[in-house]
Amino acid sequence: IGNSSTVLEELPNFSRLPQFHLPGPLPAQLEQLRLLTDEGEANVPLQTDDPEFNDTLAESEQAIEEGILPDRIYQGSSGSYFVRNRARKIIGVFKPKNEEPYGHLNPKWTKWLHKMCCPCCFGRSCLIPNQGYMSEAGASLIDERFKLNVVPKTKVVALASATFNYTPIDKAKAKSVKFATERFPDTLGKNMKAGLPPKIGSFQMFVNDYKDADFWVRRFQEEPLAPAVAKRFQLLFERLVCLDYIIRNTDRGNDNWLIKYDKDKSDTPEECISVAAIDNGLAFPFKHPDEWRAYPYYWAWLPYASVPFSEETRDYLLPKLQDRDLVQEVVEELHTLFKHDKGFDKNLFEKQASVLRGQILNLCQALEDRRSPLQLVQMPLLRIERRSDGHSSKRSAFIQRFQDKYPFFSSC
């Protein structure tokens, strides 16, 4: 396919941004929490309109204060942690920004070795480096706005714990401040805050009784599901497909999406089986993969991907995806979220948005034509770019551009 372009119909440009409401009257200065980053600070909402998430985060902070510290997860390529409540039950997964796969405080030495010894294969060239925590929260936002209900609630927060990976300087400072405040509680203790600096990162609510999809998919091949349950699972699988395609997830294997299955509840399919899409930190690329690797969706090789999208999924999702106002609002909300990062670049974000719009357009076409997920990922890749013609207008024109360069390896 050549590098062709088409000017699309003008779309309305909305300036509405998401509002976060705080319970009760609070002073304006308390409406935002100052979060430390490596070289400065960033503002993110102190509370959202999700009481369950706020309560979970508060429980985790109380547990840390009482000495129940997060545990490092030894699987994976970054520093991530199981967060517990005061009853020592896992309630969340925290992934600090500076401990991401190529973050300077990543405790996993394999990625350091990769960076030092294989610089030509360093990272994913289609992604903005060290933005995984924003990608995790962005996937949750997409899931919520399009009502897919497959991503555990995820938001950007700040936590501090001695089990996180800190520099020797940070540890020495914390130790010195603690000594000083304990030695002079009436003077320094009132003016200095003891403890390690909080780390900004993504916090995802933990889901219980789930197992890797690979485990259950193999089991379902040996022990087929009841027809009603199989239909329910196909619908949930299709929602996972739609999520991954919209955000262009470059890291979806069958080991990082989860299935919960209770055979005893087969009479009620909604309670019998559930799907959870975790590990969404390598999504929202600013271009389609076009160098060495294609980063395919590994669910495309499952038998469920050869089944055409159901009428239920089409009728449920297509009106939302075709709602131009909603899509524009989602883009604006992602902009509001991503700009909190100190390395935010407006031009790169616009490229991310152009990929997302193109994915949504392809998905709409696939749902209208009742194609299968496998046929969806075989459709020509495109971007929907905002046309910059120098004219100020409340309405924006968009240009459709097809991908004209493809990666060398298409299966990895």
Give your account of this protein's structure.
- This protein is of the alpha+beta class.
- Helices cover 36% and strands 16% of the residues.
- The protein contains 12 helices and 15 strands.
- The chain has helices spanning 51-65, 109-117, 132-145, 168-183, 188-191, 213-222, 227-247, 269-272, 311-321, 324-338, 346-368, 373-377; strands at residues 5-7, 11-12, 32-36, 41-45, 71-72, 81-84, 90-96, 154-159, 199-205, 211-212, 257-261, 273-277, 382-386, 395-396, 398-402.
- The strands form 5 sheets. Strands 5-6-7-9-8 form a 5-stranded antiparallel β-sheet.
- A hairpin with a 5-residue loop joins strand 6 (81-84) and strand 7 (90-96).
- Helix 3 packs antiparallel against helix 10, helix 7 runs antiparallel to helix 11 (346-368) and helix 9 packs antiparallel against helix 11 (346-368).
- The radius of gyration is 23 Å and the shape is globular.
- Residues 9-43 and 188-192 have low confidence and may be disordered.
Provide the helix percentage.
25-40%
- Count every helix, treating DSSP H or I runs of 4 or more residues as helices: 12
Query: How many strands?
Result: 15
Radius of gyration: 23 Å
Task: Report the mean per-residue pLDDT as an integer.
Answer: 84
Features:
about 15% strand, three-stranded antiparallel beta sheet, alpha+beta, globular
Brief characterization of the structure:
The chain has 412 residues and is an alpha+beta fold.
Secondary structure: elements and pairs:
Elements: E1 5-7, E2 11-12, E3 32-36, E4 41-45, H1 51-65, E5 71-72, E6 81-84, E7 90-96, H2 109-117, H3 132-145, E8 154-159, H4 168-183, H5 188-191, E9 199-205, E10 211-212, H6 213-222, H7 227-247, E11 257-261, H8 269-272, E12 273-277, H9 311-321, H10 324-338, H11 346-368, H12 373-377, E13 382-386, E14 395-396, E15 398-402
Antiparallel strand pairs: 1-15, 2-14, 3-4, 5-6, 6-7, 7-9, 8-9, 10-11, 11-12, 13-15
Helix pairs in contact: 3-10, 7-11, 9-11
